[in-house]
Design brief:
Number of helices: 9
CATH topology: Rossmann fold
Helix content: 25-40%
Number of domains: 1
């Protein structure tokens, strides 16, 4: 890495940390509950930035349903509940190894529902390919040569897993609702099976691709955006994951908000007081 790029990255990440602190201060003045762990954002900004940004749109003193599709080991749900302590969480994870871990962690708590299913457009059985030593990269789709050059040599183990549409599940009413999707290239199918859920949620945090990551699959951002727009959900934040690979996006976590909530974005432009959703 050149000296100029190194210095640029350091200044950029430092600036991002200060911007998040500024946002936390604004939200605290607006009456948002800010957990003590938010002070750790200086050390781990990309661990907590999702939740700070969600607080711009949602009141975390209200009951908030979380639907976590591709829950992995449950870290996202745990952190989410630190910032949004009220409500029920549903975790979907088809990888047997990971599912067993989150079931042990959450199943004794009645506010957490853990399900061993993949989520897709229709009921089916699919082959989940899990790279050895990289359980978080389990996918229903093979990686391209370029992706493998980034991730390193991959040896797969394979699991036959049941997949179901998200609309099959009955989620109790809540004041707020958030959908998080991290399915390694299967996000379009998840959205196609979630029409009823999408009409209900306030925010969607979606990992999607901007370049071809999986064999025989197009980039997914455009199609996902089109589907979400039909449900009045629009992109408001593009996260920073992947910038160490390239200046250009290949994958990003993108936060979508219900269009009516986007008025809150203008708090800095016009100096207005925070507007309650």
């Amino acid at each position: 890495m050149s000296l100029s790029k190194f210095v640029s990255i350091k200044f950029d990440t430092l600036g991002y940390r200060f911007a998040l602190f500024d946002e936390i201060d604004r939200l605290r003045k607006a009456g948002r509950f800010i957990p003590k762990i938010a002070s750790s954002i200086l050390q781990a900004p990309t661990r907590y930035d999702d939740f700070v940004q969600m607080l711009c749109f949602l009141d975390n003193c209200k009951d908030t349903l979380l639907v976590d599709v591709g829950a992995n080991v449950g870290s996202f749900t745990s952190d989410f509940r630190t910032f949004f302590p009220h409500g029920v969480s549903w975790l979907f994870e088809p990888n047997p190894e990971l599912h067993n871990r989150i079931e042990k962690q959450f199943s004794s708590n009645p506010n957490f529902e853990v399900r061993p299913f993949g989520i897709s457009a229709e009921n089916s059985t699919l082959q989940l390919r899990v790279p050895k030593g990289k359980a978080g990269l389990g996918t229903f789709h093979g990686y391209t040569k370029s992706s493998l050059e980034h991730y390193g040599e991959v040896i797969y183990s394979t699991h036959s897993v049941d997949v179901r549409p998200l609309d099959e599940f009955q989620f109790a009413p809540s004041e707020n609702a958030v959908l998080k999707i991290d399915t390694q290239g299967h996000e379009v199918e998840v959205l196609l099976g979630a029409s009823t859920v999408l009409d209900r949620v306030d925010l969607v945090l979606l990992e999607c691709s901007f370049a071809q990551v999986h064999e025989g699959r197009k980039e997914t951002f455009g199609e996902c955006t089109s589907i979400l727009a039909k449900h009045d959900l629009v992109p408001v934040v593009f996260q920073r994951f992947g910038q160490k690979v390239s200046t250009y996006a290949f994958e990003r976590d993108v936060l979508f908000a219900r269009r009516a909530l986007t008025r809150n974005i203008f708090h800095k432009n016009y100096g207005q007081d925070y507007q309650q959703p």
